[in-house]
Amino acid sequence: MFYRAHVLVEMTSGSVALGAAQVKEQFEREIARVGLENEVKVLETGSFGAALPSPFVVVYPDNVIYAPVNVRDVRRIVEEHLLKGRVVRELLFAGEWGGGVATFIPPSPLKKEKRIVLRNSGLIDPLNIEDYIARDGYLALAKVLTEMTPEEVIEVVKRSGLQGRGGAGFPTGLKWEFTRKADGEEKYIVCNADEGEPGTFKDRLILEGDPHSVLEAMAIAGYAVGARMGYIYVRAEYPQSIRHLEVAIAQAKERGLLGERILGTSFSFDVKIRRGAGAYVCGEETALLESIEGKRGEPRVKPPYPPQKGLWGKPTVINNVETLANIPPIILNGPDWFRSIGTPTCPGTKVFTLTGNVNNLGLVEVPMGITLRELVFDIGGGVRGGYGLKLVQTGGPSGGTMTPDLLDVPMAFDTLPRYNSALGSGALTVIDDTHCIVDIVRNFAEFFLHESCGKCTPCRVGGKRIVDILERISAGAGSPEDLEKLRYLGQHMKVTAFCGLGQAAPNPLLRCLEFFKEEFEVHVREKHCPQGVCTMRPKPQPKKTVRV
Amino acid sequence: MNTPFVYQDVEEILSRYEKEETPLLCVLEDIQEKWGYLPRDVLGYVARRLGIPSSTVYGVATFYAFLEVRPVGKYVIRVCKSTPCHVRGATNVLEALKRELGIREGETTKDGRFTLEVTSCLGVCGVAPAMMVNDVTYGNLTEERIREILALYRE
Description:
The structure holds two protein chains of two kinds. Helices cover about 40% and strands about 15% of the residues of chain A.
């Protein structure tokens, strides 16, 4: 059936949390009420990022954007725009596009934006495979299966310089090559969608907005390394991602794009979903494997690394969602195209998620090497309420702490470590200067205490002691020696903890102790919180504590 | 709980994962979905059926934040306390919920309707502060919005 118009409603966990599902239902009701149900179709779409307030609605083919839309606005849009063809000017999105009627594509709402991973998000219906196919979906898989050897595929990925987007930045092509060369008949592809780093939700929006791009990439990876089976490990907090993946897998199988003898070739590949159950540590790749194996998600000793011994002891590729979503465009456009974006040592784009005290919240995909200033002030619209910038936490609590003096550092995997920071998952949590550093650091520390799996002592006990001391300081009972103890604990945890979680946990603490030294000292010497956040009222001491 | 009827249901769940090498976590998740928590004798039954020590099964059941070994309310409210929510007022959200429900975190209301829990990042930082009620997410929370949301579940 042909429709004269389509109404796209943003349906992501974030927009649904603001009532997008009701907006969609209201559109369907109102359209039926005015008798347009055979002329206008309502569709779901993914996020368009920080540029558009949620939930947004696009009317095609007019390319008109309304944002944000609430249930009460729906009747007017249907009666005026869809029935009478008059744009409802008051409800139009009035962002970067200025006063006129907002058009969707082109131009991109943000001049600095470059969408590779999010090429389809917000433009297609993620629940309809034909939308994906219409935008060159599964073309890369077809090309790989009919024109390339597995070695050639690995060579293309290696030459592209793609690095793992989960946070560590390990070269993806090398990972694939190690797994291909490892002994063993059975091999696995695992997609890490256990995105637990606070402030990160890029993988959710990729899975919600364009699930097929990840499935296609997993099949390509399977062909390249010689695997027939893939698992996507999705965190329990993302029921909508799981739902979209289930639909996408079923549709792909129906059309012979997953399953036995894909596209009539001899290659078979199947994908299964594994749901997490609320454990941050399972984002660590070996803990994730343990969890798929139905055990407690405690990390394994490395080496051996997963490409040698992974899932059920078999060679395994573990790639992040965003990493995989880069693969089809790299295959179609070639490694040189990918290398032309970003920096010479860190090619491609990165999806950043802007969170915290910033005006425009949401995700944005930009070339690697962009500065923090451009991200926070140009794209993010600056600090909310006109306050000053205290710090930006990059890559969540386990990433790096960027203080205002580092605003002009280019953001890439290889540049930030020079400043004791890290790009990590791309989360950017902006914190304004009304916040107290002791309170913020305590919030990070409580997170790690809660999420420590308990396997090793430095993380389990060290994390607890750090929280105790910070609580004492914010209750006005701290002493200058406490700051020394924090430093000592932090440094020891960093070098002795078993896995990345415990090793990264003290990073923000150590950096803030150094940069915000004075603020900490005021707390312990004058028993005063300059921001008035800490209670500074001592609580009765617990009966027994472990001595450090 | 201890009726053959219940074990038929458990058997049905076990049969879903017959072909899986290591089905434990999937089985526990499905049991929880059915009963809202993991009753102790069901855990023992699963251990025997899968040939896994019951200590291991209990270890897995208590490791994951979304698995409950004690009965919980009909609606589990999980309030995010991670930094992006924290700097946008998550503490006020938690206080408002405690006040409205008359319970502290980790507790269940007397009528068995609500359990209040604090959780790590829910991944909806774009609408912080946020919370989940069972598997529905709510964002941009204010005291007023919390009252409206609770009213939906009180009916």
